[in-house]
Each structure stands twice: as C-alpha cells, then as structure tokens.
Amino acid sequence: MNSPAPDWHAAARALRIDGRAFIAGARVAAMDGASFDCRSPIDGRSLTQVARCGAADVDAAVASARRAFDDGRWSRRSPAARKKTLLRFAEGIVAAQDELALLETLDMGKPIQQSLAVDVASTARCIAWYAEAVDKIYDEVAPAPHTALALITREAMGVIGAIVPWNYPMIMAAWKLGPALAAGNSVVLKPSEKSPLTALRLAEIAIAAGLPEGVFNVVPGYGDEAGEALALHMDVDAIGFTGSTRVGRRMLEYAGRSNLKRVYNELGGKSAFIVFPDFRDIDRAARTVAGSMFFNQGESCNAPSRVFVHESVADAFLAVVAAEAPKYAPGDPLSGTAETGAIVDETQLRTVLGYIDAGHGEGATLRTGGRRVRVETGGFFVEPTVFEGVTNRMKIAREEIFGPVMSVIPFETENEAIAMANDSSYGLQASVWSHDINRAHRVARALKAGTVHVNQYDEDDITVPFGGVKQSGNGRDKSLHAFDKVTELKTTWIRIDGE
User: Fold this and answer.
1) Active-site annotation holder among 193, 225, 228, 266
2) What is the pLDDT of residues 463-472, one digit of tens each?
C-alpha cells in the first residue's frame, strides 16, 4: 500500500530554518551581527534571516579550515577512514531528504518532486561516489634509472574555497565537496545569497556523520563581500567557482592580486542543439529540446537555448516544440505535480523578461509563451518561451539568459550549422541529431564544447566530467578528473646507492 503524498504546504509552515553561518563546527551569527532577509520566490514569504558574512567571518572560517588541515584531524586520516565518514555523510543526506528538498524548493523555486528526485538524490550519490573512489586511486612510480626511485604522489592542497550558484545549490556544492573532502582538504563554502539554506544544513549533517569540526565551513553572504574576501584570502590554496563568466573573470583577477591560488571556473553556456533532416524522429528531438530547455525553469548553464534546425524540417519541428511548451507551464512548486516552478528572485525575473523584450525588439517572432504568469501568488513565474525567425547575431542568441527562453535558428548546410554553433564565446555543451553516423562523428568533432551529445541531451552521470571550453571555463567537475583540481602532484627522488 502506497503511503499518502506529503502535504508540502503544511511541512513548509512547520519548518524552522536556521540562517546562521557554520564555522568551526558550530552555527554562528556574523561577527558584526549583519543579516539579510531570505525570501521565497514562490510567494515572496520571508523564510529566515541569514548571516551576512564579511571579511572577518571569512577569516575565521579559513583559520578554522587551516587548523583542521594542519593538525591532520582529517587530512592525515587514511583514505579508508575518510571513506567511512563520507559514506555516513551521504546516508545522512538521504535520511534528511524531505527537509533538504523542502529547503531547496522554498529557497530557489524549483518543484518539490525534482528537488527530491534530482537534487537530493544527486547530492547523496556524488558524496558517496567520491567516498568510494578515494581508496582506489594509486600513485605512480616513474621509470627512473636503477640507481634512483622516483615517486609521483597526489597530495591534498590544503584549504579549498568553493563558491557555488543558486540554480542547483546542493548539487553544485556536492561537486566541489566530494573530491575536496575525499582527498583530505578542508573546505570553506560560500553559497549564493539567493539560495544559501541547503548548504548550511549539509554542514550540520556532515558534522553529525563524523566529519571533524573546522573541515567544512559555510559562510553565506554577498559575492562582493564574503565571496571576494574568500577569493582574495592569502591562506586559501584554490578556488572552485561556478557562476557567471563576468564573475569568473574576477576570480582570476583576485588570484593575481593575492597568492596566485589555483582558480577553476565552471561558467556560463549558450549550448547549441543541431537537428539535421536525416534524423528519423523529429518529434523525439523536439520533445527532448523542450524538456531539456525548460527543466529547472531554464535556469541551467547547459540549457540548449540555441536550436539550429535544418530549414526542410523546421516547421514540423517547431510545431511539436510549440505543442510541448505548455506542458512546462509553471505551477505551484509545493503541489508535487508542477513540471516547472518559480524564477529564483525578482532581479532574475526582470532579466528574463528583458531578454524577451529584446527578442521582440530585434525582430524575432514569438511562437509561444513570453509572459509573466501567476502574478497573484506574489511569486516570480515566466511561461516557457519560444522564438522563431532568430538570427545568430541577435542578443537572445548571443547572451546567456538563464530562463525559459529558446531561440530557433534555421540553417541550410552542415558547414553553416557548425559555423553558427561555434560562433559563440561559450563552449559548454552541444547536441547533434543525425542518423548518418559519419555526419554525427564529423560534426561532434568539429564542435567546440566540453560535452557533445549525439541523438540525446539528457544523459548524465557522476562518472563523466562536466565543464567547458572558451568562456565557459576551465577544469572539470565530476568524475575522477575532479581530483586534479583539489590535489597537487609531488615528485620524490630517492638515491639508491650500490653496495
């Protein structure tokens, strides 16, 4: 017998949220007492007051992380011991899944069933995967002369600063935390001020699982205060940043102004989705792009927002996309049935609506959507929006919107499609739809992107790297390659004397 679905509205009313920072194993207010109001984009309600951390709080968090690293309470534990603790951390995430999902939905507006099935589940899987991986990674012995032994070892860096965005707060935090903690580092996490709540709970769950105090600290606050202080800190060894290209540039500047810390940026995207006329199921391609584009309210850096369709199948393709779009009309995120939810805040709502206005102004044709809806709720909701008649030079085709806005661009030849797809400052992901195996390989090789999908767009797993090229950033999250960002290679030469 199935248990009844939770009453998420009642659960939300009963939820008590602690917005204080997490430093040295305890919840603390900002040193100067500053805080900011955390409001839900669903209806504008005030959720809690969140500590507005500044440079002094970041200093305290980094000092706590450095002490924990230097005294070896975590860094000198064996990989097998770290594994056990991190597996308990993952189990704790699963045990708290309803609370974490509710915090995520209230904080950034996504549907509750997606917070449960995607965000919480992926976060737990990520932590568990890196836990399982860390005691299965071997160091190297170089092919040195017989009079020497050359060892190549991978060592934890020290204190890792992690700055994550608001669209997938838990998942992005886990992508940074998993490899960093598994390798033996300490971490200071700065979540987005738009969605800080789950990061703070994750820290409590980690400590309850046995992670020593000081190893994982969370400093909520604004980017130009807490984020800048963390990136400029002289005792932070590396910064893992996920966010906009504009702020990613600042991360590199801050490294140059401070201690030349390593900076790994995972930045924006304007991903190309290319449909050739030889693909035999145009309806499936159209359904896939609609689902991928409008998932999470279009607030995904890898959303396929530039859709290149061969002119011979463009009408049929657009008809299906237009029919699919209303299925992703935003609803009540706490209902358990809504496919999409609210835009994260009013500032982002205005940004999305501004791009829709720009599409009209540049001469694109609105096929469907384009309006703010559910205004009476007090929340921030936008219809799935599809523009046709777009050219690759229009603003809506050039700039990352981070909202449910799709641009459909026709093409005539394969070379034209490749040229337009690559004519972007971004290079995060792309997709090729063709049943010609030669064309699929040819185009996939020609596209400048960190990931190229062929005849699908939804495949993803912790075992494969995620990241881009060009102004979509450097370095890779996920997979074993993520350890490269949080460890240093050391070579040790040993002289072997003869008898």
Assistant:
1) 266
2) 999 999 999 9
Joined together, the tokens standing for residue 214 give 């000081």
Residue located via tokens 């700055």? 163
Is 38 annotated as catalytic?
no
Tens of pLDDT, residues 380-397: 999 999 999 999 999 999
Q: For this structure, is 299 an active site residue?
A: no
pLDDT band at 2; cut points 50, 70, 90: low
* % residues pLDDT > 70 (the chain): 99
HEC letters along the chain? CCCCCCCHHHHHHHCCCCCCEEECCEEECCCCCCEEEEECCCCCCEEEEEECCCHHHHHHHHHHHHHHHHCCCCCCCCHHHHHHHHHHHHHHHHHCHHHHHHHHHHHHCCCHHHHHHHHHHHHHHHHHHHHHHHCCCCCEECCCCCCEEEEEEEEECCEEEEECCCCCHHHHHHHHHHHHHHCCCEEEEECCCCCCHHHHHHHHHHHHCCCCCCCEEECCCCHHHHHHHHHHCCCCCEEEEECCHHHHHHHHHHHHHCCCCEEEEECCCCCEEEECCCCCCHHHHHHHHHHHHHHHHHCCCCCCCEEEEECCCHHHHHHHHHHHHHHHCECCCCCCCCCECCCCCHHHHHHHHHHHHHHHHCCCEEEECCCEECHHHCCCEECCEEEECCCCCCHHHHCCCCCCEEEEEEECCHHHHHHHHHCCCCCCEEEEECCCHHHHHHHHHHCCCCEEEECCCCCCCCCCCECCCHHHECCCECCHHHHHHCEEEEEEEEECCCC
- Mean pLDDT across 251-280: 98
- Choose the catalytic residue: 204, 299, 301, 383: 301
Residue-averaged pLDDT of the chain? 97
At residue 499 the predicted structure's pLDDT band, cuts being 50, 70 and 90, is low
